[in-house]
Structure formats: C-alpha cells, structure tokens
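Two proteins were folded this term; both appear here.
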Amino acid sequence: MTNQLKFFILILTTTLTSFSCKNETQKKNQTTQTNNTESVAIIGNYVSDGYVNRKHGSDWVSVAVTKLDNDKLNISVRSRADIKKPTCTFDATAQKVDDKTYETQIDGKSVLFLFLKDELSISTKNEADKDLLYFYCSGGASIAGTYQRIDEKLDETQIDKKQFSRVLNLQSIGFNISSVVKDGNNQLTVLTFGLPHDYNEIFDIGNNIIVNAEVEDLNADGSPELVVFAQSQDKSKKITVYAFSVNNQTSMSQVYFQPTEENKKINNGYNGNDEFALVENYLVQRFSIYKNGNKTDKMKQIQYKLVNGEASRRFEIAKISEYDIK
C-alpha cells in the first residue's frame, strides 16, 4: 500500500468518525431538548410560598391552569378567602408563544406566563408595564411572581369560590363580571359602575361556565356593549351568549342573541365547539361544519352586527362565509 493511499484512508476514517460523533451529539441534543419539553408539565395548580403555612394563617395565592385548545390556556388566579376578602383575583385566556411561554393582552399590553419545571412565572413583557399586575390584587400586592406546582387539589376550605371574575372598562363605564356556584347551579353576576343608574343582575346559567367576557362599542354610539360567553360542559362545548348594551351613558339593558341551534340561517352542520370574539364592530362566531355526525374540513364563520329592535337591541347576521381548514 502506498503512502498516498494510507493517507487517504486515514483522512476518510477521521472524517467518518467525526461525522458519526456529530450525529450522535445532535441526537443527544435533540433527545435532551425533547426531554426538557416533555418534562414541563403545564396543566395543573400552582401556589405562592404562603400555601405551605396556610393552616397557620398565612395568606396565599394560587394559579389554576386548564387547557382550552391546542394553543390556548385558561389562567385563573385565586387567593385565600376564608379569613378575609380575597387579595388577588384574575382570569385570562393565554395564547401559545412557544412550548414554555403563553401570552395574554390587557389594554394592549402583554402579560407572559413562563412554564419551567414545577413552576410558573407571571410577568409583563415590558418592565415598564409591571404596575398593570397590581390592579388585580389589594393591599399593594401583585399577581406577578413565581408559583410552585403542586400535585393535589387546592384547599377548597380556604380558596375563593368565584369560578370567573373580570373587571372591564370602556368609555368611562366599568363592568364587574363574576360567576359562582350556588345551590348546585352556576350563577353569573353582571354589575356596572360609573352609570347614573347602575346595572346589577344575577343570571342562572345552569351547568355552563363563563369562559370569556369582552367589551366594545359595537354600534359606535359612544356607549359600550358587554358580551359574556358561557360554555356548556358536555362534549358539544356550545357557547351561550349573554350581551348587554349601555344606553346613552345612563343605563344598561340586555341584548338578544338567537341561539345558534335555533337559527335556521346558520345551524346546518352546527355541532357546538364554537368560538366567539369581538372584532372591530362585529360579534364573530366560527365553528367546524359537521355532516352525518362527522367533522368535515370546512369552517363556518358568521359576523353579527348590533341593531335596534322593537323592544330591545339584538344581534343580526351581517355575513356568512365558509372556508376550508386544510
């Protein structure tokens, strides 16, 4: 064997060995990344430091994280409520940013939820916005901070019983929306502040749970509308809409929304699992279209506009569209 051939074989062997090592390193890195992703358990309950000493009177705050869909989480912050009024109350829907980070918008400002192994950190995206998170607590506290994951249910003898709580503001009018379980049924309370004749009503919503509430001036008359979304707890996950309109900045009355299953213009193919949102001056609904009980690859989207009715305001269909989701 010539020296030139020996040199060539040596170079080839070294190259193959290096390539093999790089592949192994890449595989190990990929495995490590996968394991790190899998080790971050997101869904569950998280608590502040005071929770371990709760039997000795320590105040504490919890964060319950539940899944809405593949890219959204429901974030519910509750605190101890058996000794005094709750110190912190907050509800939000968070959108996935990456495998460990979710985000929600409050008054155009970003709030981040970072999930690491056995802990959750809440903060604003911009440091200058951190005061925003003090609004949801009393006594100078903030929902910002780090919470530790626990593997058991939260202490039901101490925790705030509100299932949903949100305070919204628009055009100098405030809305306090909350729900609790009473006598076996869920009850929705809608309270306004800032009106000469404030609205304070309670609605029996059965087994439905409130999943969101939004406010917008839908008819551009200088007074806001409040829309609350209640979701059924069966497989259909149907949404019931509770809507309210402020009248000339003086009072508020309920707005009629025809249930989807009763509306012949749009109920063909409807099987629940619908989503709602306020987009500009419209209430927008979308849902997958079903045929013969099976989900198809088509979605139906409906835009509703707010109109004046004979007895009260109501939502009227403005546009219906269908599109492929593949």
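Next, the second protein.
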Amino acid sequence: MKVLIAGGGIGGLSAAVALLQRGIDVEVYEQAPELKEVGAGIQISPNGNKVLDALGVFQRLKELSCDPVRKEFRLWNTGKPWPMLSLGKAVVEHYGYPYLTVYRPDLHQSLADRVRALKPDAIHLGCGVAGCEQDEQSATLMLRDGRRIKGDALIGGDGVRSVIRNTLWGPCDPEFSGMVAWRGLIPMEEMPEHMQVSVGSTWIGPGGHAVCYPLHRSKIMNFVATIEGKTWDVAEGATPGTTEECLNDFAGWHEDVQTMIKRSPRLIKWALMQRDPIPRWTQGRISLLGDAAHATLPFLAQGAVHSIEDGMVLSRCLEGVGVADVPAALARYEAARIERTSRMVRGATANTERVHSQDLATEASAEKYLQREWSSEPIFERYDWLYSYDANTAPI
C-alpha cells in the first residue's frame, strides 16, 4: 500500500512516521521550498506526548523543551494570580506523561528527522497542491506543476485552507473570527528577573487575553496576546505588526504584559480563523487530518496535539488492510476521531468567552467569576477527557 500525504506540517509528518513504522509506504508532498515551521510556541499535553513517545521523538523533544511547574491565571490589570493546573510531577503521576511547552520548529524538525530515518526520500518539497481525484482503485494527487501522483489513499493534511477538503466538498474555509493574535518570541535574558520563571501564565481580561510560557530549554519566552474587535483585510493569515499597535490594543493592561510587548524583537499579527466542525472528512480513498479536518481556535491548546493523535489513529486503521479495503479503513478512522475532535473545536470556542468575559473587568467580579468557571471541578471536567485519551490504544 502507498499513502500520499498532502502537507508536511506536524499532522502530516506524525502520520507519515506512524504509517512507516507499520510498514506502510508513504510519500509526503509539501508546498514550501524548505521544510521549516514558523518560530512559535505550542503546548503538548500528556495525550500528545503519549503518541510522540510511540513515534520515537518524545525523548529528544523533552530535552529541547520545557516542563513548567504550573499554569496560572493573572488578572489583566492588577496581575493577581489564580491557580489553574499543577503541572510537573503531578501531571506525570496522573497521566503518565508531562505537559511540555515546545518551540514549534523543535517538534517539526524532530518529526521530519524521524520520517527521513525511516524513509530518506519520503518528503517532497516545492510541491503545491492543485486538487485531487479518485476512482475505485486509486487516489490521485494533482500538483500545481502538472504532475499527477497516484496512491492507494490520499490524506489531506494541508491546513485550514485545505485544497483537498475544498476539492471534495466545495469552498468551506474557516472564516475570520474577529480576533487577532499577536505573537512574539523574547530571549529569556531580556526578560525582567521576576518573569524568568518556569510557569505558564494566562493574563485574562474583558475582550482579550495574553499567554506566556518558556520554550527551548528556557532560552525563549513565548508571548501570545489575543484581542477581540479587529478587522482583517490581508490575503495571508499573518502579517508583521508594530509595537505601537499592540500596545494600543492592550492599553491599561499590567506592566508585565506591556514589558513583553516592548521587548519582543518582532511582533506578528495572526488572524484567528474559526468554523463549526464539518460533518464528514472521508470520501472513498481520500480523507483529512489536522487543521484541514478540524480547524480550531487555540483556546484549549489542542490543535497540534489532535493532529498528532489523528496520525496515530489513521495508521492503526490502515495497518494490515488490503488495498481494496482502504475506503472502509478510512471510514473507520473518521468514525474513531470525528466526535472527539468536534468536541475539542466546540470547547475551544466556548473558552473564548471564559477568558474574555466582561466579569473580569474588576477584581471583585473576577473573584466570583473565576470561582465559578475556573475552580478545580470545572477545570477537571474541561480537560481530563482530553489528557486521559490514548490514541495508541483508543477503540477503532
């Protein structure tokens, strides 16, 4: 069997490793001329690290990443802290794996190296996707340069503006949410001493929030600040921004937030896109994974993790299957994943209001609000089902 994967992002490479480990041939077609990720931070919770361990990249990634001691909330204007999650040993004891804060290029490179260790020529660069088609015997990936690549299955891992998805079901790209995320990477040595800590902090306020956590062996502080009520008229999903505009968006916020804005060497504005979960991923010999299947707002920190899970479950569904039975195997993959990923997408959308509530305007109203929405019981209900899942053994 040969599986074609459109897209060499985290989801596509995770799927490639999982399939190759099961003896299934894979070809990955990536539009970029070189394999690299935008420098940014992501959070990999225990459910993602379980899979990365099975893929043979967890130990290397752990050495390159950070294992914060806790996640906490900070009130937007006063900086008052509230506990959110105990991490470190507590998470390992409960779920078996840590909660890591990861420099995205470190994860992407680890996965790419693992693919190439299993099959040196599996990744093809400069291969923009133009479309796809299929018949009863094969699926065909059409490239922008005119080439037509045949395989037994085709997986669209080509992101939120997936050509594969839109070819199958017509235009259904996510829409702009009205929120913009400002992203910056700050050398840790440039941070004030009291902020050089192994903690994930989420500054929450009415209409916006800001997140910071350490990356890359604590050499970098990741800063992401999301604000509502923005417009977006740029064709691309990201564009350079100015310190002045970001400071204006977060005027009145705590001095530590202002400091991170000012000390970010470069600030990039990202349009946050959203869409209700789509009802189907699979059509015959073609299916989807990652953002192509379940584009999500980043407010559960599960987008990358769920694409990693997709790759593992996909490989398990295709293992040992005859070529004629690929459509049935892909249908099983969709059935095993679509309810969980749809719940994740809806949960991330629901969290928007939880971190942007007008009840956060004052410390008095924030106390009552956080006790109601972010005490230990609702936090457990919101996150335990995510972290306790094991894509290596989940029913398929």
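The chain has a mean pLDDT of 96. The two ends are 20 Å apart (CA to CA). These notes refer to the second protein only.
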